[in-house]
Fold:
Amino acid sequence: MSEKPDNNKKHYHGHRERLRQRFAQNGSSSLQDYELLELILFRLLPRRDTKPIAKAMIERFGNFPEAISAPSHLLEEIDGLGKTAIIDLKVILAATQRFSKESILDRPILGSWGELINYCNTQMAYETKEQFRILFLDKKNFLIADEVQQIGTVDHTPVYPREVIKRSLELSATALILVHNHPSGDPTPSSADIKMTKEIDNIAKPLGITVHDHIIIGRSGHSSLRGLKLI
Structure:
């Protein structure tokens, strides 16, 4: 018995080709967030009409970065997204994070500020818990190590200044850039952020370790305590 024609399949296959052509001719700027998601989901779910799935993701999470970065257990609530597709989405996210990290390696961090902010945004802006990470630098301001020191709650991360300095000495770092995220989305530094930064700076200075900056990352942007003249 021959299979009945799948008109719906023909419909979304034509739609896929048109979307691919638009991307090829005009780039990603010509696509809405849900359409960019569709282009990815085409490969992950070749037998599904991915347009409603992509639209549901944007409706649930707000935009493309939020959708890709959403926790797996929340992505599982989207009808049509299975565990395999979610893992593949996280692989894509990891690839973008790896790519952004490469942009700050083997060059002085302070001379690559735009790439540094992009890297921090990619790594942390859409995390649902606060992370405190440290970029350890050598005397030429090249990156020695990038380490997440603490993971906290939605609005607090415990930071121990002496542990920060101890790790700096272990790595023979002569400079630091402190970074943490605000899951609320607002990168405005709190009084606790300022106090903690000054405590680390006060311990670091006598040991010849410079705290270049403390960057706070949020969905709506970033703040620099150095730029705000708070350190």
